[in-house]
Specification:
Layout: H1 3-6, H2 20-28, E1 33-37, H3 41-49, E2 54-57, H4 61-64, H5 76-89, E3 94-98, H6 108-122, E4 126-130, H7 136-144, E5 149-154, H8 160-163, H9 173-189, E6 193-197, H10 201-210, E7 215-218, E8 226-229, H11 231-234, H12 252-269
Parallel strand pairs: 1-2, 1-8, 2-3, 3-4, 4-5, 5-6, 6-7, 7-8
Helix pairs in contact: 3-5, 5-6, 6-7, 7-9, 9-10
Cofactor: Mg(2+)
Subunit structure: Homodecamer; pentamer of dimers.
Pathway: Cofactor biosynthesis; (R)-pantothenate biosynthesis; (R)-pantoate from 3-methyl-2-oxobutanoate: step 1/2
Length: about 280
Amino acid sequence: MTAQETAPYASSTPLKKIRTVHLAEIKKNGGHFSMLTAYDQYTAEIFDAAGIEMLLIGDSAANNVMGYETTLPITMDEMVVFAKAVAAGAKHSFLVCDLPFGSYEISPQQAVESSIRLMKETGIHAVKIECDERHAETVAAIAAAGIPVLAHIGFTPQSEHALGGYRVQGRGEEAAAAMIHTAKTLEEAGAFCVLMEMVPAEVARRVDEALTVPTIGIGAGNGTTGQVLVWQDMLGLRSGRMPKFVKQYAQLRPIIEQAAQAYKTDVASGAFPAPEHSFD
C-alpha cells in the first residue's frame, strides 16, 4: 500500500502533481494554498501525502538543521544535498529551493548558473531568490532560462544586517507603495509568484490585489494567496520563543524527548531488546 492509502491524514481524493498553472488557478479562483519547509525525505513524504501544495527547501536549513545562527553560511553544495533528499520523498508537491547567499548576487549569469545547477542535480521545480526591483534583470534572466522564479520581498533574512535586524517591512504609505511597485516590477520581470515576509497584513493584501500572479505570506496576514511556515516551528520541534506569526499545530519536542528517555531506561534496565526484538 502507498503512503497515501495508509496515512490517516491523507485525502481520499487522489493527489495531482502541482504545477505553476495550478497555483495560478488557485489565485484566479480566489482560493488559498499551503507551503511548508522540508529538508529531508521523510518530512517531504509526510507533507506531500497530506496534500501540501508547495514545499520549500529553504536556506533556513542553516538555522533549523545545521545549527548556524543565520542563513548566511549555508552553501550551494549543502542546498543541493537537502534538495535531493526532498525531491526523493515528494511526488506531488511543487518544490522550490532557495538560492543561498553568495550564489546569485554577483551577476544575472551567476544566478542562472546556480539555478541550472539546482534544477539539474536535485529534481526541484523552481528557485526562490531574495530580491527587490534592483534584481529584476536577474529574475528575468533566470525565467528566460526556463526556470520558474519565486521572488521573496519584505524582510529578507540574507540581508538582515543591511535591514537592521528582524524588522517588519513596508510600514507607512510610502513604504507600502514602494513594496507594491517592487512586487509589480518582479512580476513583470517573470516571477511566477511573490513571497512576502514580515509585512503588515493590509500592505500584503494590497500587493496581492495588485498582482496577477499568486502571493505567499509568512507574517503577512491572511490576504495572500498562500501561506508558508518553517515546519520545525509549526510542529513544535524547535524550543524557545516563537515568532508572532507562527501557529503551532503540534508539540513534537516533548514527545520525542519522552520517547528517547523511555528508550534509555529500557536499555539501562535490559528491557530492550526483548526476545521479540532478537533473532534465534
